[in-house]
Amino acid sequence: MDDLQTIESLSADLATMTLAYGQAIHLGQLKGGFLARTSHELRAPLSSIMGLHQLILSDLCENPEEEREFIRQAHEAAQKLLKLLDEIIYVSKLDYGANRIEVHPLAIPTVFAGIERLTHLLATNRGYGLTIPDIDDEIYIMADEKKFVQAIANVMSAAIALMQEGELSLSLEPHAETVDFVLQIRSPQTIWETDSLEAPLPPLATAAAGYALPTPLPSAAMTFTLSKTLIQHMAGAMTLEATPAAGDALTQIRFQMPVAAPEPEFLD
Q1: What's the total number of domains in the chain?
Q2: Sequence-ordered list of residues with C-beta below 8 angstroms from that of 155, at least 6 positions apart, any chain
Q3: Average of pLDDT values for 198-222?
Q4: For position 217, which CATH number holds?
Q5: Which helix (H) or strand (E) holds 105?
Q6: pLDDT tens across 156-193, in order?
Q7: Which pLDDT band, with edges at 50, 70 and 90, does 11 fall under?
Q8: How far apart are the first and last CA of the chain?
Q9: Cα dihedral angle (139, 142, 145, 146), rounded to 10 degrees?
Q10: Domain hosting residue 132, numbered range
């Protein structure tokens, strides 16, 4: 009997170690992908700054006004780089506990109001339709209000900046244990790829080719990665479910959050 108990105990330990090993491998792959995406993302503004400096130091500017414009663009690229670094550092510190996300019961109407406040004007200025439901139901999720609202709004803003045409809608799917926010983007433009991490790096500026600022930072891919990481730290999930590459002019992203019971101190 003792031998049998020992074997069962060893088997249980082996199963636990196997699971932990699998989780470690998966976490390592996620971190490796995040590092690769981050490295690529940081090279883009650095390339821009170096290209502008190259034009200035090589005396290829036609006049002092053009030189001053290149300096202004380099300064703008450096500011974007600093902002992106701040966002990446914040998310990275969540992994080892230096930063913490404070979750509490969050009412769905509050979420929708915050998202609309951050995205409505941008969509209107671009001429895109934006539908966000008006829900009065007392449904709550466990989340950090500021971070969760910002995560969804950032993804929507990235789509608005790149979709070129179409409309966006955000809907709600309550379930027993989760509440799903479903973002649908009706546009033939492919904004995110399900099987691709890297995009071509922008070339350095040359005197012959001239110079143009690259795609606004962070890129759509990095925005997706940062938002997904934030939501995962709130015990949620973010999934790219459909892209126009599948044949339909639809991009669909699902934000799945744990349902919560309201607590008195968070009720108005």
Answers
A1: 1
A2: 183, 223, 224, 227, 253
A3: 54
A4: 3.30.565.10
A5: strand 104-107
A6: 999 998 988 899 999 999 999 999 999 999 999 999 98
A7: low
A8: 60
A9: -150
A10: 2-266
